[in-house]
Design brief:
Strand content of chain A: over 45%
Helix content of chain A: under 10%
Order of helices and strands of chain B: EEEEEEEEEEE
Distance between the termini of chain B: 37 Å
Order of helices and strands of chain A: EEEEEEEEEEE
Oligomer: heterodimer
Structural class of chain B: mainly beta
Structural class of chain A: mainly beta
Number of strands of chain A: 11
Number of helices of chain B: 0
Shape of chain B: globular
Largest sheet of chain B: 7 strands, mixed
Number of strands of chain B: 11
Distance between the termini of chain A: 41 Å
Helix content of chain B: under 10%
Chain lengths: 118, 113
């Protein structure tokens, strides 16, 4: 079935470096993509989102890029800090089906573990 | 404002037992979704409830059920527990039914022995 996955399960960077976390998706009908950060013992925390009619969206220290041609999503974190260490998930919310039915289902990828060394 | 709250935080049950997990959404949010997160994997969608009605169901057996109350809080029930039900159960709330911005609670860690 359709799924969202990640290229790299782990990423280790030095404090101050820029981090790039990648995600591949297979559902071409997906309309919306979200990046979540999950720290140990906590629930996922919303970071940034992007709609399928956009290529790039910027937030505070984070940028999400969407390449629909190759079905690829990336999260860029500028000046990575130790507090950024966490598991990062991409998630998609598929478009309304032919019957017009939709609901708040998110399909998550496996996750990438980001470790930031001081 | 308080975020999404879940109770209990941890729970240990024996195979065959049943369990009830509870969730209170962010004030004003009318949609609650439940997810199961097995260790090392991303969350998997179980249910969505909006205005006290089930609006979506994931690929989970009938042992899993849920309901939403008039105050928009929700319960997830799992019967005849299996070892494989051990996971972190997450609740997420959103303002409306089709809202892409969902806010997650801290989860309930269920261990089945």
């Amino acid at each position: 079935g359709e799924n969202v996955g990640l290229h790299l399960p782990t990423l280790s960077v030095q404090e101050g470096d820029n981090s790039i976390i990648n995600c591949a998706y297979s559902n071409s009908a997906s309309d919306y993509f979200i990046w979540y950060k999950q720290e140990s013992g906590k629930g996922p925390q919303f970071i940034i989102d992007i709609r399928s009619n956009m290529d790039k969206r910027q937030g505070q220290r984070v940028t999400v890029l969407l390449n629909k041609t190759v079905k690829h999503l990336s999260l860029q974190i500028a000046a990575t800090q130790p507090g950024d260490s966490a598991v990062y998930f991409c998630a998609e919310n598929p478009e309304l089906n032919a019957g017009g039915t939709s609901y708040g289902k998110l399909t998550f990828g496996q996750g990438t573990i980001l470790t930031v060394h001081p | 404002d308080a975020g999404v709250t879940q109770s209990p935080t941890h729970l240990i049950k024996t195979r065959g037992q049943h369990v009830t997990l509870r969730c209170s959404p962010i004030s004003g949010h009318k949609s609650v979704s439940w997810y199961q997160q097995v260790l090392g994997q991303g969350p998997q969608f179980i249910f969505q409830y909006y205005e006290k009605e089930e609006r979506g169901r994931g690929n989970f057996p009938d042992r899993f059920s849920a309901r939403q109350f008039p105050n928009y809080s929700s319960e997830l029930n799992v019967n005849a527990l299996l070892l494989g039900d051990s996971a972190l159960y997450l609740c997420a709330s959103s303002l409306i039914q089709v809202s892409y911005e969902q806010y997650f609670g801290p989860g309930t860690r269920l261990t089945v022995t």
